[in-house]
User: Which sequence fits this backbone?
């Protein structure tokens, strides 16, 4: 006869394993066919946005006036170290919270960024994916 | 330590891990940044790793809350959080290391009387042969 504690442990372990199985099944990557790549809209993934912009992307030049027109949470551009970034998709994903990102929407956020992430290689790795141009 | 202090610490740490576990389950892509680089070599999507981690944290936090296998669970959670904190570094890492050490401290003391471990029905009693 198994003790109640052991029985409960077995049940909880079973729940754990079933949960892991559900996550593995429903979270598995599934290839999705695009109906027409040439007419499909650009995804919101910053990586795809940048790929689409490479013909003109890093050759785009913006002034602070241009950047100031994108100063909301849902349309957020910022200048950092003379480069211009579209931070819209990053607002809700920033580990330090959305307020620190929205505080630099529409302005030159160099001081704010360097103050927090000057030597942060991870931050640079993610930031480069969001680049859309340079400061004029 | 006073029983109330022990209870407060245990329930608070349990709530902390429960919150983080659910947050990882509901929005795994928000936590990908915290994955160490060596996990990139796994043939498993990053969001799946985060979801698994979240589910495990949810289960372990429930166990900690009800007080089943308290010492083992709190040791696992504490070591897990401390390792994550050390890999993050910075101000966040300092704060999380302290929380991890507090969680490990729960494992270093015997279970309090409000845990299932100490409940009569859940105690494993050795029977003597006569």
Assistant:
């Amino acid at each position: 006869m198994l003790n109640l504690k052991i029985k409960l442990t077995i049940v909880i372990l079973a729940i754990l394993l079933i949960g892991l199985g559900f996550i593995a099944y429903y979270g598995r990557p599934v290839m999705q066919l695009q109906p027409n790549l040439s007419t499909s809209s650009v995804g919101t993934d910053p990586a795809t946005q940048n790929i689409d912009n490479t013909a003109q992307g890093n050759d785009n030049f913006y002034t602070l006036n241009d950047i100031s027109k994108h100063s909301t949470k849902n349309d957020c551009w910022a200048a950092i170290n003379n480069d211009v970034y579209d931070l819209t998709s990053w607002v809700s994903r920033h580990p330090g919270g959305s307020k620190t990102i929205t505080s630099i929407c529409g302005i030159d956020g160099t001081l704010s960024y360097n103050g927090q992430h000057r030597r942060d290689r991870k931050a640079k790795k993610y930031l480069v994916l969001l680049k859309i141009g340079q400061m004029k | 330590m006073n029983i109330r202090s022990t209870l407060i610490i245990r329930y608070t740490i349990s709530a902390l891990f429960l919150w983080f576990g659910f947050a990882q389950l509901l929005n795994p892509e928000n936590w990908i940044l915290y994955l160490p680089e060596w996990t990139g070599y796994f043939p498993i999507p990053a969001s799946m790793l985060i979801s698994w981690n979240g589910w495990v944290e949810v289960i372990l936090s429930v166990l900690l809350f009800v007080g089943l296998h308290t010492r083992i669970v709190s040791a696992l959670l504490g070591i897990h959080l401390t390792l994550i904190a050390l890999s993050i570094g910075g101000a966040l890492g300092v704060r999380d290391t302290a929380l991890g050490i507090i969680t490990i401290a729960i494992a270093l003391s015997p279970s309090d009387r409000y845990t299932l471990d100490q409940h009569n029905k859940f105690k494993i009693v050795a029977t003597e042969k006569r």
Q: What stands out?
A: The interface with chain A takes residues 29-30, 33-34, 45, 47-48, 51-52, 55-56, 59, 63, 68-69, 92, 116-117, 121-124 of chain B (CB under 8 Å). Residues 3-26 of chain B form the longest helix (24 residues). Chain B has four helices and no strands.
